[in-house]
Amino acid sequence: MAPTSPSRVKAKSIQQVCLVVKDLKKTVEAYWNILGVGPWTIFDFGPDQLSDFKYYGKKTESKIRTAVVQAGPIELELIEPVAGDTIHRDWIKEHGEGLHHMKFLTEDLDIDQVEKTSTAQGFPSIQDGHFGPDGKLHFCYFDMRKPLHAIWETSNRTGGDPLFEFTRYPADSNAVSPAKIKIPGIKQVGVVVKDPVESAKNYWNLLGIGPWEIREWGSHVLFDRTYYGKPSWGKEKIAHAYLGDLELEFVSPMEGDSVYQDWIDEHGEGIHHLKFLCDDIDETSRMLAEQGFPSIQSGHFGDPKEKAGGFNYIDVPPLHCIWEPVHKPKALPIEPISCVP
To answer: Phi, psi (5° rounding) for residue 119?
Structure first.
């Protein structure tokens, strides 16, 4: 019998991952030109669209500019703070541009009840508002960085074009991206944590996300691990869970040099990278390096007698994100050492 989560709020799916940026137009163009991501839907969100935009419980006349695109199983969102107090402006001041939050959907889409339950559990709304016909559409952000290492948003708006004025980029619906690499979509959201088992338990108990498989990873299963282009040795513990076609990954550095330990040292635990699948990791990495985006950590795994799998973490500054192209082999080289629950 499958285990049942004790969570009072249950995430049915992860609908969206969001980055906050200073220049939305420039970032949209970069995604179109570097990874072929688009076309984008762009719109403003503020007093003209919201009946009660609240920031930490207080009404505000704040305004943000938003761009969204469907990227495989998940929506990619960009937000540029325009005016007033917002959690997005706060993030840029404290952390700079980059990955900011994930959005989940619940089965019944009862956001009022989610807000009440989350508040009772110690996670009050940090930003929310109503919009759409009769103000029946509702969104809420919750700061759950301590147990879940992420800000989470939920809404009863499940997708589709905005209900108010918007533009497209590129404007020409027949435009073809000049990108040398065109990603098929986001396959994974990676989160760097100190304890993947404890993090997996928290996700299972608070949002019902799981079950999780825990593995030990690192040089013992890789045959040419590199760190900033040089041979390296390292070891991590990882955890994986799926919601539909999207994979959620926790990575915990254990030994050796790694981009994960670098991230914790500089930023603390949190959302770290987005992954896409490719057919040839070496060619994909080469093309990105030619554009000025070299590897910060990489490795190959699987059977070296065949076309082995491989991964490469690449920091792409114009995209304000670490992207991980991955070529998957026929099977993972290691089995789980434990599961949660």
So the answer is: -60, -45
Tell me the per-residue pLDDT of 280-334, one tens digit each, with 9 for 90 and over: 999 999 999 999 999 999 999 987 777 679 999 999 999 999 999 999 887 776 8
Local structure of residue 170 (DSSP, 8 states): S
- Low-confidence stretches of the chain (pLDDT < 50) are none
d(CA 35, CA 320): 13
Cβ-proximal residues to 254 (8 Å cutoff; 6+ apart), any chain: 218, 234, 235, 236, 237
Tell me the DSSP string of 146-168.
HHHSEEEEEES--SSS-SS--EE
Give pTM, 2 decimals: 0.97
Question: 265-268 contacts: CB < 8 A, separation 24 or more?
Answer: 267/95
**Measured between alpha carbons, how far is residue 317 from residues 26, 34, 78, 236, 291 in Å?**
12, 11, 15, 25, 12
> Which run of H or E residues covers position 336?
none
Spatial distance between the Cα atoms of 177 and 161, rounded to a whole number of angstroms: 21
CA distance 16 to 23: 20
Check if the beta carbon of residue 16 is closer than 8 Å to that of residue 110: no
